Amino acid sequence: MAGLQYGSAPCSCETHPHETKLIAVTGGPGAGKTAILELCLRSFCKHVGVLPEAASMLFGCGFPRHENTPARRAAQRAIYHVQDEMQNLVLSEGALAVGLCDRGTVDGLAYWPGTPESFYRECGTTREREFARFAAVIHLETPSADEGYNHQNPVRTETPAEAQAIDKKIIEAWEGHPNFVNIPATEDFMTKAHRAIQVIRSMLPACCQTHPIP
Fold first, then answer.
1. Residue 12 is assigned to a structural domain of this protein
2. Dihedral pair phi/psi, residue 39, rounded to 5°
3. What is the pLDDT of residues 49-82, one digit of tens each?
């Protein structure tokens, strides 16, 4: 998914001003975030936008993906700042009712080689600030190998076991967020996707909830 994208469903709320809020759509590798966000673009109007995953943008453009500690820290700092600035842009423009973020800034803790305190310090932020930025956090559970873990993403390097371990770390990172919603993995992906879209729809302004779900 490239660039900031907007919902394509017919809009019936042209004259309604919206106060933009951010929702993090997160989960471990292979959880289905990208597919579900693409379904959201088809299901909702232009006042719902999707912010692309910062990690995919950076690694897809050649940012070094080395396994040593300095490189891992550099990557997570870069990911944090790219996403933070995308969020700042969306909030400053004020054109959206909801910005759906492909991962939240706190996800970086799952990949950070150090303490949570060092992550927030090196990124120049705090846990409280990051939690307050997101009106809600929707966590999509990573499937096991038996449930259909997908290896097709070219920037995904994790095994199913590693992906599930990262998934648990992401849950721990967001622990305590007042509006955290977990969507469990299912054998039928569309069941999971429908649940996620219904949850997202319930968080939209009333005028943006009138679109039928495909």
1. no
2. -65, -35
3. 999 999 999 999 999 999 999 999 999 999 999 9
Residues 6+ apart with CB under 8 A from 204: 44, 48, 97, 98
Residue with tokens 């120049």: 124
Domain ranges, residue 173:
19-204
Burial of 96 (0-12, 13-18, 19+ CB in 10 A): buried
Number of structural domains (the chain) is 1
Q: Which residues of 151-184 are buried (b: 16+ CB within 10 A; e: fewer)?
A: eeeeeeebebeebbebbebbbebbeebeebbebe
Q: What share of the chain is helix, strand, coil (3-state, %, to 5)?
A: 45, 15, 40
- Check if the beta carbon of residue 59 is closer than 8 Å to that of residue 157: no
